[in-house]
Amino acid sequence: MIKIARRVRLNQEFLSYLQDLYKDYWTTLTLEGSSKLVHPTVGIRQGVPLSPLLFNPVWDEFLKTLDPGIGYSPDQQRLDGMAFADDLILFESTPEGLQRRLDSLHIFVGARGQAINMEKSFTVSIVPSGHEKRTKMVTTGNFSVLGIP
């Protein structure tokens, strides 16, 4: 998180504030009835109003890696991705292309100490509706990242 703040050239006073904010941050993890107090060392603290400011540069960096010639084209406007805070939307014209984007996203965020929360993730397909001569949206939670469902 501090690396991100440095990358966007926040001044030293603000960096010191962020370090103090995270220095004494502890949270409780609970698994099968057992709880443990832990001190997170990676990631961006949830619920902090600064989170979008700190996370958007990460998404900006990833979105710049996307091929602008690939994506979804409603009304001649090509969309390849959108992001805000820790939410990301990727557009792709084929399931195979989307899979490649998801795999590259997994590698990208992993290198920055983050992970994709598969339980909060899903895909939306915009497909022809056949005889209605329209398109429809189909959602699914069935996808994988690097071959892992």
Automatic annotation (TrEMBL):
One Pfam family per UniProt: RVT_1
Biological processes annotated in GO: DNA biosynthetic process
PROSITE patterns: RT_POL
Source taxon at top rank: Eukaryota
Residue span(s) of domain Reverse transcriptase: 1-149
Protein name, UniProt field: Reverse transcriptase domain-containing protein
Source species of the chain: Ixodes scapularis (Black-legged tick)
